[in-house]
Amino acid sequence: QVALVESGGGSVQAGGSLRLSCAAEGFTYALPCMAWFRQSPGEEREGVASVDTWGTTAYKDPWKGQFTVSRDHTNNTLYLHLLTLNPGDSAVYYCAAADRLCSGFSNDAFIYWGQGTQVTVAS
User: Fold this and answer.
1) Residue 111: what are its φ and ψ, rounded to 5°?
2) Cα 91 off chain centre by
3) Which of 65, 60, 41 is nearest to 105 (CA)?
4) I need a surface site. Which of 80, 84, 120, 123 has the fewest CB within 10 A?
5) What is the structure's pLDDT at 85?
6) Are 60 and 49 in contact (CB under 8 A)?
7) Tens-digit pLDDT profile for the chain (123 aa)?
8) Long-range contacts made by residues 81-84, C-beta under 8 angstroms, separation at least 24?
9) Residue 72 burial class via C-beta count within 10 angstroms: exposed 0-12, middle 13-18, buried 19 and up
10) What one-character DSSP code corresponds to residue 82?
11) For residue 44, is it left (φ>0), alpha (ψ between -120 and 50) or beta?
12) Distance from first CA to last CA of the chain, Å, rounded?
């Protein structure tokens, strides 16, 4: 049985940082594309950043430079470093994976999803 398990969320003051982790458990191969999405209250889930199996990254414009995505193949884990957080970054952050190379942030392209981890930024 396979699963994506996120961790690292929590509460932080504005200007602070967090590192989110996503362990890809049970997979016997390197997932071609892994990504982070987020969903704020009352908003649709939206893509944040992705990284393919060769380490090529892509970001949605608002977060390029503020967030950094990376993956470690030795422990099959995806990371997202969140820097200079503000209250608008409060959301549930989801890890997702696709069985094909990264191509945008369409929710339908990702077939595996984690349960989400809450990030709350206080002003």
Assistant:
1) -105, -15
2) 12
3) 60
4) 123
5) 97
6) yes
7) 999 999 999 999 999 999 999 999 999 989 999 999 999 999 999 999 999 999 999 999 988 899 999 999 998 999 999 999 999 999 999 999 999 999 999 999 999 999 999 999 999
8) 81/17, 81/18, 81/19, 81/20, 82/17, 82/18, 82/19, 82/20, 82/119, 83/17, 84/15, 84/17
9) exposed
10) E
11) beta
12) 41
- Structure tokens given for 123: 């002003």
Q: Which pLDDT belongs to residue 67?
A: 96
Beta bridge pairs of residue 69: 80
pLDDT at position 62: 86
Counting beta carbons within 10 angstroms of the beta carbon of residue 67, is it exposed (0 to 12), middle (13 to 18) or buried (19 or more)? buried
Query: Encoding tokens for residue 68?
Result: 């950094």
